[in-house]
Amino acid sequence: MADAPESKGKLSMADDQKPPQVATLSYGDKQIELPIHSPTAGPDVIDIRKLYAQGDVFTYDPGFTSTAACDSTITFIDGNEGVLLHRGYPIEQLASKSHFLEVCYLLLYGELPNAAQLEDFEHRVTQHTMLHEQMMNFFRGFRRDAHPMAVMVGVVGAMSAFYHDSTDISDPWQREVASIRLIAKMPTIAAWAYKYSVGQPFVYPRNDLDYASNFLRMCFSVPAEDYVVNPILSRAMDRIFTLHADHEQNASTSTVRLASSSGANPFACIAAGIACLWGPAHGGANQACLEMLREIGTPDKIPEYIARAKDKDDPFRLMGFGHRVYKNHDPRATVMKQSADEVLELLGIEDNPTLQTAKELERIALEDDYFRDKKLFPNVDFYSGIILDAMGFPQAMFTPIFAVARTVGWISQWKEQISDPQLKIGRPRQLYLGETERDYVNVENR
Ligand code: CMC
């Protein structure tokens, strides 16, 4: 692939005492002034929106490594310092002092709720946990061995066929109902995808249980024996939801935003987000990480896998390691590691060989120059799979659980985007390297 068109010119910022307000791009005989926006936190942003109109050039940034695709007030990450804030609140405080539904309220509405607002919000979510009964037939159309993520993409997309009264995005009431429905129904959808895959009857939600306990019960209860939810496991589940609730403009969130920029209905947009989350470089990493830890098996095999991860000719990567934004510890991973210790101790399996392998792998990798130089640290997915496995979830359910948690982030970002009166359809341009125009040749002459 050709280099970015940097060679044609240079982008320079005014070196002033005050924060620079304008950047000047010069190339050929052209010089273009571009405004600079200062965020409340994070690096300044050069506004290139008028660049094509003024200069007849595009910028080139596949993978969006240097591009802010939107402005947002929801989540802030400082990847160098290992900071993650939701509406300004550090994730460590939210994980230890708050709980998932309160964080949902914070992400959706911008402030922590007072007691009455929280009660009302919890009530509204609880009232929407059931699925339209006809959706059961929809589940039954899938093969039993379908991956639960395939089922979730299909069922969430199909919600637009079941809930017509909340697909008009120009109506604030419908937007609100769609948001609550998605947050409320996602645990039921994920639990039913699981139940269907193991051939057990679907378990209806129970509104006297909190969000995490209700999800655990819908997954593990059977008609012959009701599942009694252990509060420590429920707390750990809630924390996993909280830690995954939002993460700024990651791949699946950007997918949701791009889908919504065309005016697509919220259920279609969230289905697009689920599809993107599925990949092993994103939400699928938690499943891939546990598979990798199991494959490594025992600590003595770690050096072999570390060598493979460092080998340029081997596509193997340490799953659960590295992050596009964090070039320091992922703050979510620190909380997740503590949670793994707590859950495994509670279950009396603290000497779990997978946990031991994970800890040893982390220790060895963090002492290795390759990982240190490239600033590769364990990410949120490194320990989450161990907790979910200990709770009794099969690996195929790890990413659906991530999807349940991330739904509020997707919805909050979707709401923010469609509330913008300046919203334009997302339409990137390209660096075209294909053939120039040529004449069609009949098949007998080729
Ligand atoms: N193991 C070994 N080498 C790695 C790894 C890894 N896990 N991650 C990155 N590298 C190397 C990579 O080979 C490259 O080396 P070089 O510069 O010599 O070519 C360098 O580090 C930079 O990697 P990159 O792929 O250019 O970085 P990225 O920002 O595009 O990718 C990532 C970020 C998360 C996709 C990548 O680190 C990765 O594939 N990690 C494993 C998958 C994973 O755990 N994903 C979950 C991310 S957190 C949850 C979520 O957001 O969904």
Automatic annotation (TrEMBL):
Listed pathway(s): Carbohydrate metabolism; tricarboxylic acid cycle; isocitrate from oxaloacetate: step 1/2
Family from the record: Belongs to the citrate synthase family.
Keyword Transferase assigned: yes
Gene Ontology MF annotations: citrate synthase activity
Listed CDD domains: EcCS_like
Taxonomic path: Bacteria, Pseudomonadati, Pseudomonadota, Alphaproteobacteria, Rhodobacterales
Pfam families xref list: Citrate_synt
One GO CC annotation: cytoplasm
Region Disordered: start-end pairs: 1-21
Catalysis performed (reactions): oxaloacetate + acetyl-CoA + H2O = citrate + CoA + H(+)
Keywords: Transferase, Tricarboxylic acid cycle
Protein name: Citrate synthase
Biased composition (Basic and acidic residues): 1-18
Organism, scientific name: Palleronia aestuarii
Keyword Transferase tagged: yes
GO term, biological process aspect, one: tricarboxylic acid cycle
Annotated catalytic residues: 323, 381
